[in-house]
Every structure is written in structure tokens, then in C-alpha cells.
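Q: what sequence does this backbone want?
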């Protein structure tokens, strides 16, 4: 960098530092103003013309560009800024920024090329209205820990847009807490929903930093149910928030509980340059350490006391609050530990009603939720202690964090002493670079099985089937071979791919088959024997590795390496295989069994203290919260009974920088448990759909209407879906009921499933006139999906039915239980009777099988033939059906209703109408009725289920934008699980 570059950088740094925290202002004027106080030569760079010239010659990584990237990100991400009314992260927002900066078009164009507008999604918020207090103006004079944390993240390499996103997300949490200086007592309770292993800890670290800066003086972090999880959280907070000075408090470095921690020795713990209290801020006092959970205080109860500079004023008064130290404790969710804390708090002299407290509950759906029956006299153990804390600390704010929120949203909202997130639910956006459930599945892909490749199919690229039995180690051997190959690939990329020595500090494989300790021990012997017999240094081992490289690794990495080095052949990789084997098993211990806290306490599986290239065998200890670093190959055969538990076992989710293409998941496809057979891949796919559906619903309803929320947190439970018959969202004793009253589903595929078991002839009679009104000769319709490069095509009988006539059919239909369809019926009544009308007619499609398919039946007096479909009711939710429709019919229906663009098919385009809905009919025969078709193809009307799906016109929106209405909480059978099932538990 030249002297001119340095001076220019200093000038722009001074300008942007002055603009930080304020609105964009005239850049040219700001440059001249700042140059007056700098080196006389700075004036030569105090013009927009010079800025343009520098940008023309700049690269995206230049320091000047990075400086502007950071500031533009803050303005791009700002939610509801006082200086503008444009939507965050849009071209309109960026244009508004440029306008306020008074930049020329040429400068704007150069900045856009070097710093594109971020279009990433922001957090989704479902919230009660709240009293605004946390504003930039109110916090400008006091920040200490948040700016330090933000700087730490930047130094760690976080991109500016990620830091800006975290800033916004944490603001949205903190602003919904009570003002810690307010005389009025209010206890806010909220829930933050992230993804499994996606950075939730970074979010709550930011929340804690901002909260203590604002005045919260006691922070209690509930850090999981295991010592290893609590210690992991303690270390993270100590390293990135508390800092060296607060840890040491004047003691010698070697007396620290981190004296043997490589990160401590390497200077990676945050430092402030002195005790914060000596720098005009305040100290954080640790009540727990990495090795020690909360204990009845040896140094006396005074350690929990809070100093009041003005004894006559309450602690929450600004005169006291901002001169007092903050106390932090990371506590395990253990009845005994929490009971000690409750007891000690009850003894301190400081009135508990004066202490602003923040409770962060990590993995809040685990142990924290009350699992006692609703009429039980006593709460479950952990929930009782949390309830006591909330009751005795009236200024306590509760924020739960989880990736599996279903248990939390099913908590009874009327129980004021429980942890229901009554004030807000915030769903964090999926972070850049994250590899989650969707990355292992092909959700909503329009491609047929024969069209899938390593490039367009996540399943084909990353998932491998386990189909052998417990005595056959073929799949286990292949998984182990993949672990060795991927280790060699990492060493290759460090050496020849430019990543550098030590880039991949950890490299692990996880084997998860059981939670039982004795199973882990025997599995250890089995896997160890397999390792020793693998012959990785001999011809037999190399032959297997070569075959796996040629048929798997090279093909996947060729299309998914994201620019990272890929060997042209196994021979090119061969020099790295031996060193990889040595890294894993050179100490004769290639395997670590993790089934108890002692495994971490001895350092065997402590990722913080050493590099680990090992195979890990574990169960519950590795199933929730604990991050398995460097995880590349997973071998998973364990089934869980609910979606939350199974999702948390997905340790293969996370950030995989530099080796995303090497990740492999070996999953049991035919796991037999209790006499039933389960496909674990289908289970995870169902969970992924549950999660996507939940977030999609939150997104729909997070939009404000007339300045008020459409729904509040107590109306969330009906938005939870269940896609797998055997996999409920969470355990039955954590589920609660509510009822959805109306759903406006313009342009969305809706598919009822609660068809009656008896009296089917009523529904058949209602549908027969509709079927007989359709054309007699099927035509072929299609929808082309350009992104997938595929077309869905099918033959169907078609016809149109006026909206009023179709509404009459809907109203007379009988159901096994009407509650699931009632919210849709109310919407259909609304759009049909609206003035002016929102729907004119329905285009009815009756899909027909190809001529070679003999599945036809005759219905009605006319004896017309229609194709029928084989479907059965779900065993676990009898008498409801599962999905009835065929995915290939949906594109055409969506297009007819105006929910998709041009189909690329002339026949389909002729069916499209302005206020037209699409209805797809499926005559269904259940297994026990299929033999009832006589020789002429006839069957009784009481044996046919006329199922249907519909897409209302995409234009049939509510005038006020509101898309749902709810009733109060109830015990209706329409909920996912009814009260009777809970009581059975």
C-alpha cells in the first residue's frame, strides 16, 4: 500500500467513523470537513472524484472497499431507521443510502459492482406489541461489551453483512425485553429459533452483551443438561464476552482455569486493555467457571450481593445500575444445582425485586418444559426450579434458544409461571455457508428419479444407504473408507489447494447406533477390529479406496468442490493416504467412545484442547448441543420417537468450510424397532418438511397489518405440521392444543385428509355431477420448470364449475372430523361471497392414468369410467389419510390459479383465468375395498373416497392482508395431538 493509499484510507475511515450510528450524509462535504484536521496532503483525496478513481482500480478485498462494505452493511440491514422508509436489504434501500450520501451515478455503480446489495432474509418475528426503549439514542453513551464482541467477530473473519445481520437479530430480542431502568415491573418471555449447530450461541452472546450494556446486572445461562455442554457454553462466553481481565481479576495468568487451553495461550480470548471498570465501563463477575458449576458459595452469600452507590435509590435506578458490576453464571439444568441457586438468592440483602435479570435458556425444549400432566399438582423437576426463579425475580426476562421449538410453543399460554414465549418468537435466518437438513434432501425438486445427478441431487451427492444387518459390516467398512479418503483429501487441499498447514484442525467420523453404554463398548471393539483389518497401507485397502474415489469422491467433488482442489486421479491423492491413516490411528487409538462426562474431563474428546482426527462412538452425550468439530462422515442407525429428538441427533448439520463436498451421511433405510420397519432418511426428510412448513407459516404471518401483528405467540401451535406418520413434532407430554379458525390460502396447494369412514355415498353423490360435467376425452397438460430443466405432464379430464355451485358442494361434504377443513371452508365462503367477488369459477381436473394402466372404475348412472388411485389411511393417525395427491399435478394447478408464471404449454395456458381456482379430484380406493370392483368396473358409492386438493386464485387475498384467524386455546381433537393422548402418557 502506497502513502497515498494509506492517507486516503485514513480519511475515509475518519468519515465513516463519524457517520457510524447516524444516517448517511453528504460524502463530499464530510471528506472536506475531516481533511481539515489531518495531514495537509489529505485535501488531495477529499473529493468524490478521487473516490471514484480509487474504486475503479480497486478489488473487492482492498481495505478501502472493506471499510465501505462494513458501513454499507450497517445501513443496508438497519430495520425501520429514522432516516428512511425503505425495506432493509433491497435495491431501494441502497438507492436511498446513495441519495443521502449525495453520490454521483458513476460512484453508485462502482460501489454496487464491488459491494453488491445483500438480499439475504432477515429474522422472522411473531410478537406482541411492546414498549420501545432500546434505541440507538438511548444506548449511545454506554456500550462496551457489544462493540468489543462485534470487533472480535470482525477479527475472526466474520463478513460485514453477517455481523450486521447479527446486530439486527440481537436488537430484535433486546428491544422486546423490559427496560431495566423502568420503575414498572414487567417480565418478558421469548423464544429464538435457529437451526441445529447454526450459530445460536453467537446470537445469545450478542444478546447478553447488549443486555448488560443496557443495564441487566444478573445473567443466568442455563447451559444444557450435561457437564460437557455447560462447560462448552461457559468457555465460549468467557472467551468472547467476559474477557481475560474479568477472568483473571489481577491474578497470575497461570492461575486461570484456562491455563492449559491452547486458545488462552494463543491470545484468542477477548481483551480490553485493562479492567473495564477502570476504563469507564463495568466489570463482569463470573459466578461459575469452566470446571465448576454453580455451588453454594464458599466465599459467602455476599458474592451475589449488588453494590448500590446510592443506597436510598433502588438498584435499577440509573445512578446505581450503571455503576454496578454484572454477575454471570452458566448453570447446568440440574434440579440440585438450580435448587442451590434458588436458595442462595433467597438469602441476599439486595431486594430481588430491584435486580434486572436475564435468563438465557440454551436448548430450551430440553428439560425446561413442564412434562407433568395438566392437572398434576407438581411441575416436573427442572421446570419447577425455573418457575421459582421467574417468580422470585420479578424483573427477570426469559429467552429460550432452540432449533426444535415445538415443545416450547405447545406450553400452556395461560400458565403465567411457565416458560411459554408469550411476548415474542424470533426465527433466525439460515446463515451463509450453513449445511442443514435441506442440503441432504431434494425437497420440492421437480426432477424424476432418472434425472438425478451428483450435481442436481443433494441426496445422491451426500447420502449413502445402510441396508445390511447388524452382523454385516459392509456399509460400516465403506463409511470408514470414506473417512480415510476424506482425510487424505483434506491433507491434499492443505498442501496443494492453498489452504495451508493446519487449516483442518479436526477431522471426525460419528457412529451413532444406541444410547446404551454397554453397546458402545462392544461397538468399539467391533469398529477397532475393522480398522485393524482394513489394510490401508496394503494393496487390498488401496484397491477399495481407489474404487470409492473413482465411483464416489471424484464424481461428487468434480461438481460440488466450490473451487477447492480435487485430485485428477487416486494416484495423485495416494501420497496423502498414509499420513491420513497415521493422523487417525498412529497412536493405536483411532476411536473415542463418548458416553459420559469423564470422556471430556480426561481430554479425550475435548476439541478445545487438541486437534482431533478420530472416529467417535456416542449416543445422548453427542446428540444435543455438543458440537462435533470437523464432522465429515456420519454413520447413523438410531431411531427416535419424535421430530425434536431426531433432529437434534443430526450432528452432521453445521458449517463445513473447505470440505462441504466431502460430507457423507450413512443412514439406516430399514431399521426394525418393536416389530416395525422405519426408513431414517424418510424420517429426516419429514422433519425437514415440518421445519420448512413452520418457518414458512411464520414468514406468512410475520407481516404487520395496520401496524399490528396478524398473530401473537399464543396462536402458534396450529402452525406446526407433521409429515411422517411415526414421528410427532415432540413428545406427547410437551404438546398443547389450540384451534385454527380461518386460513386464507390464496395461490397455495391445500389438501384435506379427514375423509369419513362411513357414509361415503353422500360425498360421492355430491361429486358425481361435477365429474359428469367434465369433458369425456382426456387432454394432456404440462408445466415446464425451467430451473430444474424438467416438465411435469399428465392427462386429465377437465371442466369448469361456477364458484357458487362449487361452494355448495364444499358446504355439504361430510368429514370424519370437520375441524381440519373448517378454516378452509370459511375462507372459500369469504372469497365466493365477497363484493366484488374474488373467484368466478373453478377449473376441475380429474387426472387419468395412461392407457396401459387398468385402474379405472365406473361411477353413477351414466357409467362413465374414471381413473382411481390407491391410498390408505395412516396407521398412527387413523382415520386420516397421508398425502393423496401426485406431485406432478401441482404445477398445472398452480398455474391455472395464477400462482406460477407461464407454463410453456399451450393447452395449460388455455385453462388459465383471472379469478379462477383449480380443483384436482382423486377417486380413491382403500386396500379393503379394491376387490369390490365388479367385472364391469363398477363399485358401490359407499366404497369410494372422492378426495380433492385445491388452489384458490392467487389474487384472492384479504383486503387487510390478514391471512389467519384463531380461537382461544382449547382441547379440540383438531390439534396435532389431543388431550386424551397426553393423558395416556
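A:
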Amino acid at each position: 500500500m502506497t502513502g497515498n493509499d494509506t492517507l486516503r484510507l485514513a480519511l475515509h475511515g475518519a468519515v465513516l467513523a463519524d457517520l457510524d450510528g447516524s444516517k448517511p450524509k453528504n460524502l463530499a462535504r464530510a471528506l472536506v470537513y475531516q481533511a481539515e484536521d489531518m495531514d495537509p496532503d489529505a485535501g488531495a483525496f477529499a473529493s468524490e472524484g478521487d473516490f471514484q478513481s480509487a474504486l475503479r482500480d480497486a478489488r473487492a478485498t482492498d481495505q478501502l472497499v472493506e471499510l465501505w462494505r462494513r458501513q454499507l452493511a450497517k445501513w443496508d440491514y438497519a430495520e425501520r431507521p429514522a432516516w428512511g422508509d425503505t425495506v432493509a436489504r433491497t435495491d431501494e434501500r441502497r438507492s436511498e443510502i446513495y441519495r443521502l450520501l449525495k453520490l454521483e451515478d458513476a460512484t453508485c455503480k462502482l460501489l454496487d459492482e464491488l459491494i453488491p446489495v445483500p438480499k439475504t432474509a432477515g429474522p422472522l418475528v411473531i410478537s406482541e406489541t411492546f414498549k420501545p426503549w432500546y434505541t440507538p439514542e438511548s444506548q449511545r453513551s454506554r456500550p462496551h461489551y457489544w462493540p468489543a464482541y462485534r470487533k472480535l467477530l470482525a477479527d475472526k473473519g466474520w463478513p460485514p453483512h453477517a455481523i450486521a445481520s447479527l446486530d439486527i437479530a440481537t436488537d430484535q430480542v433486546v428491544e422486546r425485553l423490559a427496560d431495566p431502568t423502568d420503575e414498572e415491573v414487567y417480565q418478558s418471555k421469548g423464544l429464538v429459533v435457529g437451526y441445529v449447530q447454526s450459530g445460536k450461541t453467537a446470537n445469545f452472546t450478542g444478546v447478553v452483551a447488549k443486555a448488560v450494556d443496557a443495564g441487566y446486572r444478573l445473567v443466568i445461562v442455563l447451559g444444557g443438561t450435561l457437564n460437557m455442554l455447560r462447560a462448552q457454553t461457559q468457555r465460549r462466553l468467557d472467551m468472547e464476552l467476559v474477557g481475560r481481565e474479568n477472568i483473571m481479576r489481577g491474578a497470575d495468568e497461570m492461575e486461570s482455569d484456562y491455563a492449559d487451553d491452547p486458545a488462552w495461550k494463543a491470545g484468542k480470548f477477548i481483551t480490553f486493555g485493562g479492567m473495564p471498570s477502570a476504563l469507564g465501563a463495568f466489570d463482569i463477575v463470573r459466578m461459575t467457571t469452566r470446571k465448576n458449576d454453580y455451588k453454594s458459595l464458599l466465599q459467602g452469600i455476599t458474592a451475589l450481593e449488588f453494590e448500590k452507590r446510592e443506597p436510598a435509590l433502588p438498584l435499577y435506578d440509573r445512578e446505581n445500575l450503571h455503576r454496578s458490576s454484572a454477575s454471570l453464571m452458566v448453570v447446568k439444568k440440574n434440579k440440585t444445582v438450580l435448587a442451590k441457586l434458588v436458595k442462595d438468592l433467597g438469602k441476599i440483602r439486595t431486594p430481588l425485586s430491584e435486580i434486572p435479570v436475564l435468563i438465557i435458556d440454551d436448548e430450551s425444549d430440553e428439560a425446561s418444559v413442564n412434562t407433568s400432566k395438566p392437572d398434576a399438582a407438581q411441575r416436573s423437576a427442572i421446570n419447577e426450579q425455573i418457575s421459582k426463579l421467574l417468580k422470585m425475580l420479578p424483573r427477570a426476562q426469559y429467552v429460550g434458544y432452540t432449533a426444535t421449538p415445538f415443545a416450547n410453543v405447545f406450553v400452556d399460554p395461560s400458565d403465567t409461571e411457565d416458560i411459554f414465549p408469550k411476548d415474542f418468537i424470533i426465527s433466525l435466518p439460515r446463515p451463509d455457508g450453513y449445511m442443514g437438513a435441506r442440503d441432504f434432501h431434494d425437497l420440492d425438486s421437480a426432477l424424476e428419479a432418472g434425472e438425478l445427478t451428483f450435481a442436481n441431487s443433494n441426496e445422491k451427492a451426500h447420502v449413502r444407504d445402510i441396508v445390511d444387518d447388524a452382523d454385516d459390516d459392509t456399509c460400516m467398512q465403506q463409511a470408514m473408507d470414506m473417512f480415510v479418503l476424506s482425510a487424505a483429501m483434506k491433507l491434499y487441499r492443505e498442501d496443494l489447494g492453498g489452504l495451508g498447514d493446519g487449516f483442518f484442525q479436526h477431522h471426525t467420523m460419528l457412529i451413532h447406533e444406541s444410547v446404551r453404554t454397554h453397546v458402545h463398548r462392544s461397538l468399539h471393539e467391533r469398529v477397532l477390529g475393522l480398522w485393524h483389518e482394513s489394510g490401508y497401507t496394503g494393496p487390498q485397502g488401496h484397491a477399495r479406496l481407489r474404487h470409492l474415489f473413482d465411483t464416489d469422491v471424484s464424481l461428487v467433488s468434480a461438481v460440488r468442490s466450490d473451487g477447492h482442489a480435487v485430485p485428477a486421479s487416486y494416484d495423485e491423492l495416494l501420497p496423502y493416504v498414509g499420513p491420513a491413516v497415521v493422523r487417525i490411528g498412529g497412536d493405536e487409538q483411532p476411536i473415542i467412545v463418548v458416553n459420559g462426562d469423564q470422556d471430556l474431563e480426561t481430554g479425550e474428546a475435548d476439541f478445545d484442547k487438541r486437534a482431533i482426527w478420530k472416529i467417535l462412538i456416542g449416543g445422548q452425550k453427542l446428540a444435543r448441543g455438543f458440537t462435533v468439530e470437523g464432522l465429515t462422515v456420519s454413520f447413523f442407525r438410531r431411531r427416535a420417537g419424535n421430530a425434536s429428538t431426531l433432529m437434534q441427533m443430526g450432528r452432521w448439520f453445521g458449517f463445513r468450510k473447505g470440505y462441504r463436498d466431502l460430507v457423507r451421511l450413512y443412514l439406516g433405510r430399514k431399521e426394525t424397532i418393536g416389530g416395525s420397519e422405519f426408513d431414517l432418511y424418510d424420517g429426516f426428510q419429514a422433519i425437514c418438511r415440518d421445519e420448512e412448513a413452520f418457518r414458512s407459516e411464520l414468514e406468512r404471518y410475520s407481516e404487520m397489518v395496520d401496524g399490528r401483528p396478524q398473530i401473537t405467540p399464543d396462536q402458534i401451535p396450529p402452525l406446526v405440521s407433521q409429515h411422517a406418520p411415526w414421528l410427532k413434532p415432540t413428545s406427547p407430554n410437551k404438546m398443547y392444543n389450540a384451534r385454527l379458525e380461518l386460513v386464507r390460502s390464496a395461490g397455495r396447494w391445500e389438501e384435506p385428509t379427514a375423509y369419513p369412514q362411513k357414509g361415503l355415498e353422500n360425498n360421492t353423490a355430491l361429486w358425481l355431477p361435477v365429474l359428469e360435467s367434465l369433458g369425456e376425452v382426456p387432454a394432456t397438460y404440462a408445466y415446464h420448470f425451467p430451473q430444474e430443466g424438467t416438465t411435469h405432464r399428465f392427462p386429465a379430464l377437465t371442466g369448469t364449475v361456477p364458484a357458487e355451485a362449487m361452494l355448495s358442494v364444499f358446504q355439504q361434504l361430510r368429514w370424519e372430523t370437520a375441524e381440519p377443513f373448517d378454516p378452509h371452508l370459511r375462507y372459500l365462503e369469504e372469497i365466493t361471497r365477497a363484493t366484488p367477488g374474488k373467484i368466478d369459477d373453478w377449473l376441475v381436473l380429474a387426472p387419468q392414468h395412461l392407457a396401459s394402466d387398468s385402474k379405472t372404475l365406473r361411477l353413477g348412472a351414466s357409467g362413465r369410467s374414471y381413473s382411481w388411485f390407491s391410498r390408505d389411511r395412516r396407521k398412527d393417525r387413523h382415520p386420516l389419510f397421508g398425502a393423496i395427491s401426485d406431485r406432478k399435478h401441482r404445477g398445472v394447478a398452480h398455474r391455472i390459479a395464477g400462482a406460477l408464471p407461464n407454463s410453456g404449454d399451450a393447452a395449460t395456458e388455455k385453462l388459465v383465468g383471472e379469478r379462477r381456482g383449480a380443483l384436482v379430484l382423486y377417486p380413491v380406493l382403500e386396500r379393503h375395498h379394491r376387490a369390490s370392483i365388479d367385472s364391469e368396473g363398477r363399485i358401490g358409492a359407499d366404497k369410494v373416497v372422492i378426495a380433492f386438493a385445491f388452489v384458490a386464485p392467487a389474487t384472492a387475498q384479504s383486503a387487510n392482508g390478514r391471512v389467519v384467524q384463531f380461537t382461544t386455546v382449547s382441547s379440540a381433537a383438531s390439534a396435532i395431538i389431543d388431550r386424551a393422548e397426553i393423558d395416556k402418557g
